[in-house]
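Sample 3 of the quickstart, ligand zinc ion:
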Amino acid sequence: MSRLVLVIGLASSLLSFSTFAFGDPAMVSTSIADRFDFPVGTPDADGYQKSRGFNVRGHLGEDWVSSAGPGAIYRAPVSAVGNGVVSLARDFKRSWGNVIVIRHAFYEGGQLKYADSLYAHLDKIFVAEGQPVTRGQQIGLVGNAHGLYHPHLHFEIHRNTTIGVVHTSASRSLSNYEDPSTFITQHRVLRPASGKMVVDIGSYTMPTYAGIPARPFYTRNSVSRIASSNSAGSRPSVFQMLFGH
Ligand SMILES: [Zn+2]
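Result:
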């Protein structure tokens, strides 16, 4: 029986690799999210609190600080809230600073859904675009957006996976943005899923200000070696089911 599992695992690896080798460099394999946890003090945000909450008409995410006092969160670990793949990881300068976005696939009400989690103002980034991550994995350190703010984690969850860091690319509605804590609280127990999905991480509207490449780039060896002549806008935005779930 264990040999059978091994064969299935090997076949899945080959299948994923063939997608990398012959497909679009923006298509990356990821484990399906089995649950979502909080990004600081993971899994339950122990020792941390919100200094500013989500408001779909105002603040499109949450600001997290340490319960130990102002500034105590500086350089605290930031964790991936669920299994997924890093879709953006770079310095966006200006008000954002260092930002990580992770694309997640998960089951909700029997249907496959997807969402992006966003972690901003980071002091350090430990992951690269195209890299798969697991829930609870340390992905960076809390920062202050290059000295612009008091240290805090700005955290968002997007249902609309074209937004990235460009808020003006989608309307301020709950169909595009989630209340992050509510989303996590409502997605702590998901349908178990052991398979993998291929997700498109090239669907973002990118900022156009100085120093930011117009299109996403991919630094992971398995995807960066493939030159792309496709425009970001022509890529499919849907998931492709590979196998299992
Ligand atoms: Zn904020």
